């Protein structure tokens, strides 16, 4: 009966729509009909071969990801599902789209995707730096800028955000994510999805987001890229999956399956993660695209004997679209005919792809307007967002005796400026910089000259190269240091030292840079070290020589301006580390939310302290903040109750500044051991000099105090908990729920 009614409604709906549409227009082309109805109609009309093409992705234009060499595709079939689009203007897209619309039997538009990671042309800081802003609203704005530039240039879909929790700085891709913490990464994942997608995917300034790389890619052994990852189900659930769940809840339309082998089952043929968790439990109704060639690579990983077998495994596990390796194109139809892949699964995958295309409005508006670049790229308001992100991302790691800001007393100090970043401004763009141009990065030297004009004498000397043995400029550097009042060292990494396939065995600065720091310190002058890099560095050997250390990361197009502002005091730094800085490589992996030791006072390194050099959340300001008492609205709470924690923070210094308050929870014991403390909430507020503000955390027990077991079932236990903020701790009790170690029912 219910079925009958439904089909009656469907028929009636179609009739209504048919009345409004031009005669002869099939329902899938009728913009007035609901998406699901249009999808069903189109699906019914498609042949198996047409369906397989919809599940295939190729490239259009010159591939700008040097890690990926693709098979030349002679001529792209008009019925292709998706293309990676490397151009900056809509023309090539529109020409290809016209072929799809006019030459394919059903006129299904192509979906154009691209890696818009931290900007399309207006490049913002790398994501790891963006997370140091702790400003989700600003990160959301940054993604909205990327979305607008990309969509107006012909891109419908970005392969971003990258939300792999990473705790090993050797892994170059740590730069692409939001750091070491699952909660913070989840918060930024949701912000990024909101920024890219907005509320209306058909808008000409929004793109579909892609959560990647699903899942556990950040656990790459010893930081090497593409390798095996050993991840227990427990760790999968409590560390690697939470950002993805948050991204799916925020409405992300696509997910990319990862390269890594997850404890014996590659991420790209993992039915547990892709189908059971993502699609069934989380109800994800968009589609999964494989990473580049990740289906074929299942063969290399030893998960399939040949590409056909790899296609079968990946597809049946839940990868809907095959990126570039053409395994689906070549084998899927045959696999269906042989009964190794079901037609239901094919329809499910195609439905998902079509759904996203309809949601993006591609059937109704397949072409991109040809607006001049000046009207869509590098707009002043877009640059302003990138600049703010870069300013707020800067972390003041050390500032002995208030050395910074410089030149504030009118004495016009002599500053010797040197280091490999001088004249290498392109390195500030960071990796994965889409259409960003190194020539458009605001030069460091120019920024410093403008910032200190009339306030200080700047002397620029060479110093040393990024790496290698060339010490020929050391002598001149030391002399300049001797003459100067302060030495400013501009150092760090080249942009291609982090990112995909950019692993470093050691996270220390190269020996030549370390040597120059020691050399100039011999002159006895205060030393300021400014760093641009794409990973947490091991600074233990150089830290004693530096009176101040400023982590500027790779700021993108704003280049030298934000850090110049911090050095002069125009900008009061407010960034805090989203990732732990080890003392040295030997401490890796090191992260704040580790589980407890059996012998907490023992088991330390004999040669170095076991603590990090700069912990997660570390970051100084030019003002000082005093934290008042930590207050709880009650000392006991039931599973359904609410509890508010509050703390008043006062800006006790002489200048305005922003403070990030991070709220942690600790559960001293539990049936499944938990991290020492877990971030559960954070908030950033601007406080004027002398101002006090109250920060609060509304604790909702199931959301904030529960934990997951190794199959993702959430549970909350009775007993003692602590809320921790800036070293202050308050105890409360959860009662009326299950006791620890009572069997759980789920
Ligand atoms: C990377 C992905 C990227 C894809 C497409 C792969 O090599 O792992 O992050 O989205 O290429 O360029």
Structural class: alpha/beta
| CATH architecture assignment name of the domain at 384-587 | 3-Layer(aba) Sandwich
Largest sheet: 6 strands, mixed
Total of helices: 21
Radius of gyration over all CA atoms, rounded: 27 Å
What is the total tally of β strands?
Answer: 26
CATH-assigned homologous superfamily of the domain at 384-587: Glycoside hydrolase family 3 C-terminal domain
CATH topology of the domain at 384-587, by name, is: Rossmann fold
State the strand order across the main sheet.
Answer: 11-16-15-14-12-13
Query: Which CATH class of the domain at 384-587 applies here?
Result: Alpha Beta
Assess the beta-strand content as a share of residues: 15-25%
Which oligomeric state applies? single chain
List ligands, each type once: beta-D-glucopyranose
Overall geometry comes to globular
Mean pLDDT: 95
End-to-end Cα distance, whole Å, is 34 Å
Helix content: 25-40%
Q: Enumerate the spans where pLDDT stays under 50 for 5 or more consecutive residues.
A: 1-20
Report on this model:
It is a single chain. Helix 2 (35-45) packs across helix 14 (343-359), helix 12 packs across helix 13 (327-337) and helix 16 (380-393) packs across helix 20 (560-568). Helices cover 29% and strands 17% of the residues. The longest helix has 19 residues, at 2-20. Among the domains are: 384-587, Rossmann fold; 625-734, Immunoglobulins (Immunoglobulin-like). The chain is an alpha/beta fold. The two termini are 34 Å apart. It has a six-stranded mixed β-sheet, with helices on both faces. Beta-D-glucopyranose binds at residues 65, 67-68, 115, 159, 212, 291-292, 500. Residues 65, 67-68, 115, 159, 212, 291-292, 500 line the site of beta-D-glucopyranose (BGC).
